[in-house]
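Below is our example:
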Amino acid sequence: MPQVYIAAGSNVEPERHLAMASTELEKHFPGVRFSAWYRNRAVGFEGDDFINFVAGFSTDLAIEDVVERLHFIEAVCGRTREAPRWAPRTMDLDVLLYGDLVRQTATLKVPRPDLLKRAYMLGPLADLAPEVVHPTEKLPIGELWRRFDRAAHPLARVRPGGKGGV
């Protein structure tokens, strides 16, 4: 069964929406584990800070079915699919890794191409699964995080109001 890692982020009532997403992830993916939660500035647009975490779980679902469930959870949290790409979000759930799968299509890219460029994805993933080897870089996530320029992309660990985190 593949190990799946997803990034969750919100900058619209983030504590409330991340708690909702955590509850839904537990319903859909039993045994899900959560990283700490982190605050960071919006990337790609001017807006309120985001709070992010990474969740990990094993599943026998196909990746397309995992993505479908993630879209359902985003909808539960108030996200519409028509929202602009670089804009405030009630919830954003993205597959970072799906086992060792490497797939690049118009609608699905795994491993997530910006995983190695975004502190809010790589840092929480390193908290949760430092020993997991990135399928194309062939290095452990913890090592990739140690090499990351953290000063250019600051994260602040936060204590969440809901599930997950510290």
In short: The chain has a mean pLDDT of 90. The first helix runs from residue 14 to 28.
